[in-house]
Amino acid sequence: MKMLNVLLLAICFLLTARMPAQTQEPKKENSVPVKSNQVQSMAYQLDGRALDERFVELFSSTNRNKGYKGTPYLFEEWKMGSLIKTGGDTIPNLELAYDVYEGELICQVKNAKAVLLDPGQVHSFFMRDGEEQLYYERHLIDGASRFLRTYPLGKGFNIYALQSKTVRQANNTPYGTSQYHEYVDKPEILYLRLGEGAPLQKVERNKKKFLELMGEYAGEVERYMKIEGLKQTKLEDLKKLIAYVAQVSQD
What we know:
By secondary structure, this protein is an alpha+beta fold. Helix content is about 20%, strand content about 30%. The protein has helices spanning about 1-20, 60-65, 205-215, 220-230, 235-250, and strands at about 50, 70, 80-85, 90-100, 105-110, 115, 120-130, 130-140, 145-150, 155-160, 165-170, 180-185, 190-195, 200. The strands form two sheets. The protein has an eleven-stranded antiparallel β-sheet with strand order 1-6-5-4-3-7-8-9-10-13-14. It has a three-stranded mixed β-sheet with strand order 2-12-11.
């Protein structure tokens, strides 16, 4: 009997030794590296300061309670997007709000406080509005960092739009009195860049001065403007013009 027990134990030991050891399944990387409880540091050492919750309450409805109409923000709700740090790292899957009036970018991660980002840390950001993706780059305009709506047209030929808002004071409208101050859009200021490494230039409203910006392409641009009936002061027309210059520069 003892011999039988010893034999059974030996068989069990041999079977156990031949079984492959179980390997621990590797932990999957989180596709959203930003943790909600680390939003103030963004887990990427993005500098920012937590905002008072009242500052980012629902974008337009609370403004009426404060004597304001409209919104200082680009949109009246959070938009999903991503941002690119000055050093080149991309942070995806953020809820973003762009305060056009102050020129400030605000982000939050779900169930976390909103953070006002240091513009010096942000190279650019994307926001999704339905099917459209809006792209903004930070540039120095008149000595101040500003986010410019950017329209890449290839080969470093870009158009930029500086968006801004002002406040129309109560009881100061051309159509009567109003009990609210109102945020209103100001006309966009357009800039352009003609190729990689070229300087950012303000689009001149005067046609002659605009053509001077075109340099060696001035003659062809002027002819194209006449044929197509284009004006450099209209964004869609300017896109066609600069896309044409980008094409001509490659010929």
